[in-house]
Amino acid sequence: MSPIHQVQFHTSFPDTSAAIDRRIPEFAPAHISDEDKYFRNHEPPAYLPEIEKEIEQFIQFHKENTNRRIVLVTSGGTTVPLENNTVRFIDNFSAGTRGATSAEYFLENGYAVIFLHREYSLLPYSRHYSHSTNCFLDFMTENNGKIEINSKYTEEMLLVLRKYNQAQANNTLLLIPFTTVNQYLYTLKSAAEKMHVLGSTALFYLAAAVSDFFIPKSRLSEHKIQSSATVDGQLQINLSQVPKFLSRLVDNWAQGAMFVSFKLETDSNILIQKATTALERYHHQLVIGNLLQTRKNEVVFVTPNDSHWIKLTEDEIKDHIEIESRMIPEVIKHHSEWITQHPN
């Protein structure tokens, strides 16, 4: 039995060769010139050709052998390095819970998953233990000099193990890492271009927390910023806006696919309005809105035609039901309708 395919790159290693008012309008979407300018001025990760090969083989396998739908799930936050030889960086708040959990439910519903994730963030299946409040040793016990699973956790762990083994046997999960926003953008673009051959059966589930701002490579300090570089004890950093490539993703990189993006806010009064604006601006089919304070218990689905909430009941919350178990079947329903309306 072959293991789940984890591409072996450590994206958190630097490439040595080379407070916002949310009520204001969103930045305008990037134009072709913005896209060209970014990729012209920023080099791709050195490992990108190998990742492209892995993605292409994964897509070809399922296209020729299983006819499964393929979903690209993005997960976790991107970093913005402050130096080329990176010591300091700006990070985004995200452990990858939404993406890793959603990926599991896509797999359970027959999809093959390309999981584009922040390195060392939560992963499907191992998420149940890797970031647990319990030490992993708490799941084990000793019996006659041998290690065994603590009987208290046996049933739950067996269920997770069986699902993991099924994903292994069916070759339905491809793990692709990123760390920086530049790595994310290049890998997303490459993956989308490879998935173009799938047409409407391809699904993009964009749950990653992507940085809004970055420091262009031309302005990066080569080495660690010294404390002597401060002015009156203050470090001043000028950040540029990350071009909004989502419309290019829809219109150019993967035409015909269905796109689901997320809108996280902290103000309930603007959530649906922000989600609707994003839907119209980037030509997506579905935007899932959630509030930081209640994101684990309720979300709102915003489509061109309507909006409706999915909320866990008090009993479901007490029973530790994951809201993704309700979300993903609903997303799949929308995807099936999209395929019907746009046959390949």
Explain what the structure shows.
Helix content is 35%, strand content 19%. The protein is an alpha/beta fold and 344 residues long. It has a single domain (5-13, 27-134, 161-293, 324-341), classed as 3-Layer(aba) Sandwich (Rossmann fold). It has a 9-stranded mixed beta sheet with strand order 1-8-5-2-9-12-13-14-15, sandwiched between helices. It has a two-stranded antiparallel ribbon with strand order 3-4. Helix 2 runs parallel beside helix 6 and helix 3 (97-108) packs across helix 10 (324-341). It starts with a strand and ends with a helix. The mean pLDDT is 89.
Write the layout of secondary structure elements.
Elements: E1 5-6, H1 32-41, H2 48-65, E2 70-75, E3 80-81, E4 89-90, H3 97-108, E5 112-118, H4 127-130, E6 140-143, E7 146-149, H5 154-170, E8 173-178, H6 181-195, E9 202-206, E10 213-214, E11 240-241, H7 246-253, E12 258-265, H8 271-282, E13 286-291, E14 298-302, E15 307-311, H9 314-318, H10 324-341
Parallel strand pairs: 1-8, 2-5, 2-9, 5-8, 9-12, 12-13
Antiparallel strand pairs: 3-4, 6-7, 10-11, 13-14, 14-15
Helix pairs in contact: 2-6, 3-10
